[in-house]
Specification:
The chain has helices at 76-95, 116-131, 138-160, 184-201, 211-217, 219-238, 274-282, 327-349, 353-376, 388-411, 419-426, 428-436, 439-445, 456-459; strands at 39-43, 50-54, 240-241, 244-248, 256-260, 264-265. By secondary structure, it is mainly α.
Length: 464
């Protein structure tokens, strides 16, 4: 997802928005070199230039003759991380239906597929720390961040709002009364904007000599993350969910109505949770995702965890629309992005590889331990609800993976094994739009001989 998902997070319509995508941006981020090696290299993240001062030398180096501006260097490990996440997303989309083990969990629990969204959000946060290392004009930076977020949100509306009707359909267009309002890119846009504003306006100017100093410098950002988490939990466990009903179209009849009995508070099951209720009340049930993940649960599907016919005794909520990227759950998505932001601060303020890695590993393992403890005591990891335990577990996993990739690529310089992932990471938005959103297959299907089934895919043996 690219530079929002990537490059300091650029916006969707700006070219590589989630790979240069909306996430953040103000230009590309640069590779920050360590002073563990033979010389002390100081790299300005804004200018993208480095000056080398040999160790033990006294005095300043002679002025260098004027030369063309050095191109900005990218943090390669972040590109590789984004590329791996893009590959994982494609794998899940294409193979998840055949391999339930890598498909999204029907409700509680975490699978490989459930790591994709938080990984992208984590990457956005890291990129933002590099993009906003210096902010000379806060108002202008705020204006650009808002515009990028709006562009990304609008691209998400087009790609996931129902405008395109499927790989095999040559029709397009969407009824505004039924357009899906939230989605993957919309959630990233929201998280990007809030995190960018926190980095622009809530960053301290304290000197950084240790990890404690870094926490003090960013204490207001941490407070925002804590406040969001507390607010989310208050809504999730404190909101009363009344009985409700919905209608769906059934073949052979106009509409069929279903009644869901709730009348509870603090329920985290599929039918009576506050996340779904808030989306139904604010967005409208007609604007939610129509293929809920819980339809594959044991209570609903005969073939669980795969899609299948409904069980004879299936609950009434099994076919109810539910948006996995809804409003309340997106609050915790912001927290994931804020956590990634703190990992990016480590790159900005600490130069030694070992320092960076240790300051990533300690919070990563701490979050994982806390997440599994919460899950054990009943606060389960749940991607559709984006629970606190799920937030901590996926952020901890993202931190560990990022530290490992950084060690391999930026610390030891082993770029050759990851060159394909690096390329995918720098073109993440393009790949997401063309492949993950099926725009390329739809485009190919639009060229045919005589009738739509005789298209290029059939000619090369893929089938229509």
């Amino acid at each position: 997802m690219g530079d929002v998902v990537g490059n300091a997070g650029v916006s969707a319509a700006e070219g590589r928005c989630a790979s240069r995508k909306g996430a953040a941006a103000m230009g590309g981020y640069e590779l920050v070199r360590s002073d563990d090696a033979a010389g002390h290299v100081m790299v300005d993240l804004e200018a993208g230039r480095g000056c080398v001062f040999p160790k033990g030398g006294g005095g300043l180096p002679p002025p260098a003759p004027p030369s063309p501006a050095t191109p900005k260097q990218r943090l390669v490990s972040l590109d590789v991380f984004r590329g791996i996440t893009v590959l994982l997303m494609i794998l899940v989309d294409d193979a998840g239906a055949f391999l339930p083990a890598i498909n999204h969990s029907p409700w509680d629990g975490v699978t490989i597929a459930d790591l994709v969204m938080p990984f992208f959000l984590f990457i956005v946060g890291v990129a933002l720390a590099l993009a906003y290392k210096r902010v000379p004009d806060k108002l202008e930076a705020t204006r650009k961040a808002i515009l990028r977020a709006l562009k990304l949100f609008c691209v998400g509306l087009v790609l996931q709002g129902g405008f395109f009707h499927g790989v095999h359909s040559l029709t397009f267009g969407v009824d505004i009364k039924k357009i899906r309002l939230m989605g993957i890119l919309q959630r990233i846009a929201i998280a990007y904007l809030v995190t960018a504003l926190c980095e622009i306006w809530l960053k301290g100017d304290d000197d950084i000599d240790s990890g404690i100093d870094l926490l003090k410098r960013n204490r207001y950002q941490l407070f925002v993350g804590l406040a969001i988490s507390i607010t989310y939990m208050a809504f999730l466990y404190g909101t009363y969910v009344p009985d409700w009903e919905y209608q769906i179209s059934v073949p052979g009849s106009m509409e069929k109505s279903f009644f869901v009995k709730c009348g509870v508070r603090g329920d985290t099951g599929p039918g009576c949770n506050a996340v779904g209720m808030i989306d139904r009340k604010i967005l409208g049930i007609q604007h939610l995702y129509g293929r809920p993940v819980y339809a594959r649960s044991k209570r609903c599907s005969i073939n669980s965890p795969e899609n299948g016919p409904l069980r004879p005794d299936a609950p009434s909520w099994c076919q109810a629309p539910f948006d996995p990227e809804g409003l309340l759950s997106s609050m915790m998505a912001i927290v994931t992005c804020l956590i990634g932001l703190q990992y990016g601060h480590v790159i900005v303020h600490f130069q030694k590889h070992n320092e960076r890695i240790m300051k990533w590993l300690v919070p990563s393992f701490s979050m994982l331990i806390l997440a599994f403890s919460m899950d054990f005591f009943g606060m389960h990891m749940n991607k559709p609800l984006y629970t606190v335990s799920y937030t901590l577990a996926t952020a901890g996993a993202a931190g560990l993976l990022f530290a490992g990739i950084y060690t391999l690529v930026d610390m030891y310089g082993h770029r050759r094994p990851t060159v394909a992932m690096e390329w995918m990471g720098t073109h993440a938005l393009m790949i997401y739009v063309l492949i993950a959103c099926n725009i390329l297959p739809i485009f190919i299907h639009g060229f045919y001989w005589g009738e739509p089934k005789n298209n290029l895919l059939k000619f090369i043996g893929v089938g229509a």
